[in-house]
Amino acid sequence: MHVRLPIRERVLMAALALAVALGYGASVKADTGPDAAPEVRSLLGAPQAVGAGQFRYLGLKVYDAQMFAPQGQGFEEEGLYALEIEYARKIRRAVLLRASLSEMERIEGARSDHAEIMQKLEACYRDIRPGDRIVAAPEASDALKFWVNGTRTCTLRHRDIRDRYMAIWLSDKARDRQFAQQVMAARN
């Protein structure tokens, strides 16, 4: 699936990609931040933050991210967990989709099923305004559940999608290596 973005958004995407590639973006917060969103609590019971990070571009905050796992269990890649991202900027759905695809391509290389994944992911994302949050939580290795501002938007079903999509934040190739290392260090 090819999404043609307006020139303003293409310039923003290029600038964001360059900033991340040059290492301008991410910083890890030492504290665990605010309490988990209601959908995270309903999934995990008593969640604990196992990692938190903040993405900034040219000094401006774009989003805060927190990874949650069940209290006392630590982080398990194949277990229960939820990624909560709270945005500080307005971002169009097409830009979020393109950024997700770009990161998957950067991590995995070009794969024949990327267009299919993006088509499925389109139902999960919405245009974002400051203060909006997206929560992604694995249901199984082949399924991810998504919420936007507490409303369930989709369950994305695709072979190995948990590991492939979450690699954007958790792999050794993640842009925010500090966040990935912090979450992985919290393994049980």
Q: What is the terminal separation in angstroms?
A: 39 Å
CATH architecture: 3-Layer(bba) Sandwich
Low-confidence stretches: 14-33
Tally the helices: 6
* SSE series: HEHEEEHHEEEHH
Helix content: 25-40%
Q: From the alpha-carbon coordinates, what is the Rg to the nearest angstrom?
A: 15 Å
CATH fold call: Chalcone isomerase
Strand content: 25-35%
- Supply the CATH class: Alpha Beta
Structure description:
This is Chalcone isomerase domain-containing protein. It comes from Shimia marina. It holds the Pfam family Chalcone_3. By secondary structure, the chain is α+β, with helices and mostly antiparallel strands. The chain has one domain (about 5-25, about 35-185): Chalcone isomerase (3-Layer(bba) Sandwich), CATH 3.50.70.10. Helix content is about 35%, strand content about 30%. It is built from 6 helices and 7 strands. It has helices spanning about 5-20, 40-45, 95-110, 115-120, 160-170, 175-185, and strands at about 25-30, 45-55, 60-70, 80-85, 135-140, 145-150, 150-155. The chain has a 7-stranded antiparallel β-sheet with strand order 1-2-3-4-5-6-7. A hairpin with a 2-residue loop joins strand 2 (about 45-55) and strand 3. It is globular, with a radius of gyration of 15 Å. It starts with 6 loop residues before the first helix and ends with a helix.
